[in-house]
Amino acid sequence: MKDISTINSRIYIDNSATTRVSDGAVKAMLPYFTEEFGNPSAIYSYGQDAKIAIDKARHTIAKAIGAMPTEIFFTSGGTESDNWAIHSVAEQKSKAGKHIISTAIEHNAVLKTLKKLEWLGFNVTLLTPDSKGQISPKDLEAAIRPDTILVSIMFANNVMGTILDIQTLAQIAHKHGVLFHTDAVQAAGHIPINVRKLDVDLLSLSGHKFHGPKGVGAIFAKIPRLPLPLITGGGQERGGRSGTENVPGIVGMAHALQECIESQKENSVYLRSLRDRLIEEFLKLEGAYLTGDPIARLPGHASFVFEGIKHSALLINKLNEVGICASSGSACSATSQEASHVLMAMGYSQEMALNSFRVSFSRYNTMQELPFIIEKTKLYIQELRNLKKLQVLY
User: Fold this and answer.
1) Degrees (nearest 5) of the Cα angle 264, 207, 160?
2) Are 74 and 121 members of one domain?
């Protein structure tokens, strides 16, 4: 594994927020910024070369998740993919019903899309997770109504790293004739995904979560279900998303995903060794609690709450001063002073939910970084606890 210190002076452990683009992905992208910059919609060979690159990338991504190339549609990222999937089903199925089921621990790309649909007259049921972040199949089945048209449940949670039993949940939805969408943004590239085995109807992913570039993602839509047009215009993406394609981004995303799939078993073993060592050391601290499922967890993901530090942002600011890049949970709300909606849904108090602390490793992290991470985190937690005691006294 490459020592991250050869790349920059920081120790980066926030890979659930975004990842470094791999050298292979950068190399694959570069020609499409320079000598191969043709428009893939052009009929001359220079443009058709770019179209061939997109088609090849579509085949690569389809193979990586067990889909057919005609079931893959490119987007600008996970948020757009989630929006497109949910809005498309809502529009297609609105005459059959206006009830959608999701969970209280979804990313805001799903939750805020559902909130918008509520304004448009849809009914939304949000299922409550258990203490590990899992969704009960019985709760899902009990929530399904005759007018339910869609179930949208994430594959792996971005805040706590819990991997959900999507195959079982999708089976329940289909038993009642309901379509199933999963936000697999955190899962893709990191754990095995086969859309046929899972039997999902729609799946979202995003390139920058698995060492691809930012600003590009994809949606899987099972044949014969085609998503309704998201952006109208020139008719790209089989009429679903018009606009000149992001050729370098698409090529880079496909290359990065293929790299991850090829080394997935090796990387998973390595990342679990980093994760488990960190968890073992942090749980030696008094008032430290692991959040999420201790077993069904993303390989490189460890999340905690610490008693007595008032707000994890203070801890993260201190770590930043010594070059450690960690987070309190979702990168999309990292600057917010609000408690994590995910942890609140799992039953944590608002005070504890404010003390969320997430570490997410990648293959570029090293075992040699762990002692420094552990030492500094423990030191600053104790400092913040001492400071809180002084504030109480005065």
Assistant:
1) 70
2) yes
